[in-house]
Structures are given as structure tokens and as C-alpha cells.
Task: inverse folding
DNA sequence: GGGAGAAAAACCTTGCCCGTATTCTTAG
DNA sequence: CTAAGAATACGGGCAAGGTTTTTCTCCC
């Protein structure tokens, strides 16, 4: 309910080892600096999400606004590898979404100090000196919700959108019960 | 002083955690 | 930058545990 996905992360496996140095020299869309990070970055033309590939063949796609966008990006990535002769049969590898980051808004402005107590100090972290948002970790879900005094919220850690929606809905019910 | 055994110290391997990098939003 | 999440991997550092080596005690 009224949550907007702002970032989706997915991961997959090509099933074969990749020579990142060769890939970086052969393909202009690939950036690789092993001294800074072991993964190689692939920025496809006209594609928003970023693909990070590793020597092992595992890869992650970050920055998608939806799972459709992530899957589309993956498709183009596989095509690129196939065209480059790196991949033979791209059918047998998997890909799945790992995390959704969403933004939402609560009806009224929040008093975070009171909210921390209301939601339970054992489930919340609020240190305005360090970070302006209240971190809420419900015990019945792996989802984490950041609540700001403006009423804006960030829901993260969900494996799927329903999980995020449920956690947000649950938070709203908790808030109604507190009034 | 030398041999046996135990205790201590030195050494080395393993494992785990952290930082490194990426995305994206929120807001002091 | 601070904080959160998730996947991914690699080097470094520290701790712990295990093994080897050195030292020391006891007694003949």
C-alpha cells in the first residue's frame, strides 16, 4: 500500500568462471580495478541498473526500480556475454531478487522520541545525533523500517514487495493503536 | 651432566570479522 | 558522511587453537 520501490537488488550465477581482465579489455562497458574491488562493473548503454560480476561467475544487479527492470537488465547482460562469446548456454543459470528498498509516508508527523518508546525500545534505535531517522526492527519480519520526523519512511530488507507492504501496514496499525 | 617428563614459550595455521565497492531513499 | 539492507569477493588483521620447540625440574 502506497509504497514505492526506489531500488531493487537481484543476484544470479552464470555457472562459469569469468576472466574479468579479458572481459574488461574486450568490452568497453566493463570496468575492472581489482585493487579497489574484486568485482567488475558493467554499465550497459541506456540501462539504468548496474551489474557487478565476479570471477566466480556470480553477479548482482543494483539500482533497478522494479523486478521487471532487473530481469530486463539481466537479459541484456546475458546477451552481451553471449555475443562476446563468453557465454554459451545462458539457460541453466538462476537469478532472483534479494532486496527491495521502498519509500513511503505516514499521515502525520512523528515525534520520534515518543515513537521509540511506543514501538518498544527493544525494537528501535534512535540516536538523532548520529542519524536523524529512527530504526525500527519488527520482530516478526526481517524487514527494517527507517522512520523520520517528517513522516517519511524507508522500508528495506524485503525479499519481495509483499513483505515490504506487510511490514509497512503492520507499522501503521501499530501507530493507530498507540493513539 | 644426561635422560625423561612436564611445563612454558614460541610459532604457525585457520577462521572470522572488517573494510572495500554498489544502489537508493530519508534528513540532520 | 551518518544508518539500513542484500548479494558478491578479496586482502588484512586479530584472535584462537593446535603443534612444535625450547626450557626447566627432578633424579639417577
Result:
Amino acid at each position: 500500500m502506497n509504497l514505492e520501490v526506489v531500488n531493487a537488488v537481484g543476484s544470479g550465477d552464470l555457472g562459469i568462471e569469468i576472466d574479468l581482465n579479458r572481459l574488461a579489455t574486450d568490452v568497453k562497458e566493463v570496468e575492472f580495478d581489482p585493487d579497489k574491488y574484486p568485482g567488475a562493473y558493467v554499465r550497459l548503454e541506456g540501462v539504468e541498473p548496474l551489474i557487478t560480476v565476479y570471477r566466480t561467475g556470480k553477479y548482482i544487479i543494483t539500482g533497478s526500480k522494479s523486478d521487471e527492470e532487473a530481469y530486463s537488465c539481466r537479459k541484456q547482460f546475458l546477451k552481451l556475454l553471449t555475443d562476446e562469446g563468453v557465454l554459451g548456454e545462458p539457460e541453466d543459470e538462476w537469478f532472483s531478487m534479494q532486496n527491495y528498498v521502498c519509500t513511503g509516508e505516514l499521515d502525520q508527523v512523528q515525534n520520534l522520541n515518543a515513537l521509540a518508546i511506543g514501538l518498544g525500545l527493544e525494537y528501535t534505535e534512535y540516536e538523532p545525533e548520529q542519524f536523524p531517522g529512527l530504526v525500527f526492527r519488527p520482530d516478526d519480519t526481517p524487514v527494517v523500517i527507517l522512520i523520520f520526523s517528517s513522516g517519511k519512511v524507508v522500508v528495506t530488507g524485503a525479499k519481495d514487495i509483499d513483505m515490504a507492504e506487510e511490514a509497512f501496514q503492520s507499522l501503521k496499525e501499530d501507530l493507530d493503536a498507540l493513539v
The CA atoms of residues 61 and 74 of chain A lie 8 Å apart.
